[in-house]
Request: fold
Amino acid sequence: MKNFIRIYSFFLLFTVTSCSNKSNGDVVIKPSVKENAKPLTLKEVPTGEALDFAMVCYVYDDVLVVTNYENSNKHLLEFYNINTMELKKQAILRGNGPGELLLLLPRNYKDELHVDGGSTSGGKLTQFNVVEFANNKDSKLEFVDYAFQCQQKYLLDNDKFLVVNPFRLVNKELGIEQDENRFIILDATDRLLSNGRIDASLVNTGGIMVNSKEKKICYYSDATAEIEIYDFDLNLIKTITGPDDLRPVYTRFQNIVQNRTKTLTYAYTYACYDDSYMYLAYDGRTIDTMEWIQNNGVMEKAESWVFKFEMAM
Reply:
């Protein structure tokens, strides 16, 4: 029996009583939320050989999505009935031909899965409703080609891309003052040129959540305990900080900023959401890089939490 869900030691569903509001509407999560955490036991599901080459998995209703490593000699996407573990559908082979990818970078957005990848000709992205795709044997994935390079992106309805600005960075230690917009709207054929700016794409690796109902966009950081809420005009309307004061240490090599230091900080590591709520997995710790490498990326007795926020907040 193999467990496809990462088991955390502790979970916490964040409530509005666990925070304080600043006069400008910003929110500060109190450290006490971790002290009041309640343990949550997750159900173990037998999966047979389905996860032998799994990189990451997602669950949508009764559909289990398995994304396999590129060198697995299997389809990169497999769709199972989570109750019976029946294989419902497969998609995307590793390669450079039509409908193939050389690498796979999946992201879940509400009821959709976005699959970002690449070929020798450039970037490719597809997004689709998982349940509808898995239950329709005739459905096929359609890819959008793009020319720019960026860590995080979201395909909008008008075939434009919402991307995290790779040049945004304010860092006093490195003397960098690039206080630019968090997001940029790009066409598929656009290219991101530095024009003498410092490239911070290797440290701007947080995630995006887009809520069309509330007309809000959320950016959550994987290195600092910060969440930013924007409206659909890309104006910052609220920040959420805490419960920890995580301070990542960056280094600069020529015009590139990277996180290659003795310590690494882990904040919001994963997220999912619906029309009403967003759920964010939070680690909130600083680890020794060498210790992490020696343990093959496994941290013993690591506690994590899940914060739940109302989209309308």
